[in-house]
């Protein structure tokens, strides 16, 4: 198989004497070439409007009149209406491969997405079978043998069937899950197979024409994130010795992904920019890339002013606080916490009555605590606890350094009626903060974030509350669990029967 270090023959031949090049320098140059190759288009996207955003705007204004082949739509399917007040034409039997399934109280983002989506599909009347790893909390586990297969014939239940494979809790073993899938598929064939990212390897998936894979992260994103993390270093901070190793290691992964992604029959991009990346860089044909934005439970995340006030009292936010900022998620470097930590530490020297609530855990937890009493670090929270958190803050901050990331927290905050302060990346500005009224954006550096924070403080909570109303209205149209489930349902129906590929 050719490698990224191979050169065309005409480039290798020369009549001039050259100083010998060491293998390490040669590999470094090759790595640098691919970094430039993949990064320049992304940096360009950060400063110019993209085709996707134009398509999104078009879809937003014409979502009632657009018609055609859904497989050719390059805007998010969330803009369209699917069987909104109707039962599905028939029930589908859907297999889901997910590395983990949320059993504990604080699941990760992808686990929460998988649970929200497939529970919603089950409630729509479809028969959902989830193949996943054993839960780490064994006291609440549901063994695969407990699934009542005879009940399948009585119609789909209101929740998915969970098939935990054997083995170590929390460790995904696709071969074990595949064996369970084959057995169930032999009993009654699945209409559609859905893989959450690469839970199902491409060598197993490549011959499955009824498979769709949702991409929650790709190697190219890791490459871009590493670059932005290094750019965020302080002038006197040395480069991490692992940086060069990670950069060199991820380039072959990007190339391998470009080669094997085409083996998946259908690709679901969770942001407009991710769809653009799959089409333009990963070279996936348009009709096999479908943009369906994630959604959150509209019953779980909603405006509740009294809950917010009670939450503030409970955690000790004083009544004279001029503004309350909030951040949630894993407290790690690639989520941008070095930026927020430094920017906020500067902000409170000028505005000491501005408070920050941190809902999450990780390496930066204690560093936030060291900033003083204006910072309240609450640790990881369950979705039910997050509802109080969102309603207690004036604005939600997301300083991510992952250009293709689209955290569920952004949508949860908007559904709770809160404006956003987020990194200016294509995924966010093209899908989330599509209107200036929804909040503020900043370049991924301390100075830009601090400038944006000062603007937020000057604007004050009353104006931010008005922005929050606009956020809630937009999110209710685009980011609900039902909206997401209906879009996936239509895609799965389209995969099963091409008649459903034509909209409306």
Automatic annotation (TrEMBL):
Tagged with keyword Transcription regulation: no
**Organism, scientific name:** Phaseolus vulgaris (Kidney bean)
> SUPFAM superfamilies in the record, alphabetically?
UDP-Glycosyltransferase/glycogen phosphorylase
Q: Which UniProt keywords apply?
A: Glycosyltransferase, Membrane, Transferase, Transmembrane, Transmembrane helix
Q: Which residues does the annotated region (Disordered) include?
A: 134-162
Q: Where are the transmembrane segments?
A: 26-46
Q: Identify the residues that the record assigns to the Glycosyltransferase subfamily 4-like N-terminal domain, covering every copy.
A: 107-299
GO MF, one term, reads: glycosyltransferase activity
User: What InterPro entries does the record tag this protein with?
Assistant: Glyco_trans_1, Glyco_trans_4-like_N
Where does the Glycosyl transferase family domain lie? 310-468
The superkingdom listed in its UniProt entry is: Eukaryota
Bias category Polar residues: which stretches?
Answer: 134-145
Check the record and name the Pfam families matching this protein.
Glyco_transf_4, Glycos_transf_1
User: How is this protein named in the record?
Assistant: Glycosyltransferase subfamily 4-like N-terminal domain-containing protein
């Amino acid at each position: 198989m050719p490698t990224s270090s191979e050169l065309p023959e005409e480039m290798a031949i020369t009549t001039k004497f050259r100083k010998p090049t060491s293998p390490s320098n040669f590999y470094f140059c090759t790595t640098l070439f691919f970094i430039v190759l993949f990064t320049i288009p992304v940096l360009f996207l950060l400063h110019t409007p993209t085709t996707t955003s134009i398509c999104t705007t078009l879809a937003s204004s014409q979502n009632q009149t657009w018609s055609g082949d859904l497989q050719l739509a390059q805007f998010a399917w969330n803009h369209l209406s699917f069987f909104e007040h109707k039962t599905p034409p028939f029930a589908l039997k859907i297999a889901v491969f997910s590395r983990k399934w949320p059993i504990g109280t604080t699941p990760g983002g992808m686990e929460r997405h998988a649970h929200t989506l497939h529970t919603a599909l089950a409630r729509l009347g479809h028969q959902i079978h989830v193949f996943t790893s054993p839960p780490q909390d064994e006291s609440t586990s549901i063994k695969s043998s407990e699934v009542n297969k005879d009940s399948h014939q009585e119609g789909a239940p209101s929740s998915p069937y969970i098939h935990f494979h054997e083995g170590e809790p929390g460790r995904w073993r696709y071969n074990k899950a595949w064996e369970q899938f084959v057995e169930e598929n032999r009993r009654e064939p699945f209409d559609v197979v859905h893989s959450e990212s690469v839970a199902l390897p491409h060598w197993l998936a490549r011959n499955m024409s009824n498979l769709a894979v949702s991409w929650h992260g790709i190697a190219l994103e890791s490459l871009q994130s590493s670059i932005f993390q290094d750019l965020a270093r302080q002038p006197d901070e040395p480069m991490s010795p692992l940086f060069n190793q990670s950069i060199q290691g991820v380039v072959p992964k990007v190339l391998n992904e470009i080669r094997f992604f085409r083996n998946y029959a259908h690709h679901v991009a969770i942001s407009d920019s991710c769809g653009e990346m799959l089409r333009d860089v990963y070279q996936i044909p348009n009709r096999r890339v479908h943009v369906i934005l994630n959604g959150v439970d509209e019953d779980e995340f909603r405006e509740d002013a009294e809950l917010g006030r009670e939450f503030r009292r409970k955690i000790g936010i004083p009544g004279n606080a001029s503004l309350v900022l909030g951040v949630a998620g894993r407290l790690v470097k690639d989520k941008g916490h070095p930026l927020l930590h430094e920017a906020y530490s500067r902000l409170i020297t000028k505005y000491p009555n501005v408070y920050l609530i941190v809902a999450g855990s990780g390496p930066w937890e204690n560093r936030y605590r060291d900033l003083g009493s204006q910072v309240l670090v609450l640790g990881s929270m369950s979705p039910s606890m997050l509802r109080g958190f969102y309603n207690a803050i004036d604005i939600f901050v997301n300083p991510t350094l992952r250009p293709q990331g689209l955290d569920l927290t952004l949508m949860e905050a908007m559904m709770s009626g809160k404006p956003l302060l987020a990194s200016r990346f294509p995924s966010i500005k093209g899908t989330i903060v599509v209107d200036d009224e929804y909040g503020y954006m900043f370049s991924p550096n301390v100075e830009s974030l601090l400038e944006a924070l000062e603007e937020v403080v000057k604007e004050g909570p009353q104006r931010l509350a008005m922005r929050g109303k606009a956020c809630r209205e937009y999110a209710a149209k685009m980011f609900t669990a039902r909206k997401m489930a209906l879009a996936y349902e239509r895609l799965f129906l389209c995969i099963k029967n091409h008649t459903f590929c034509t909209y409306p």
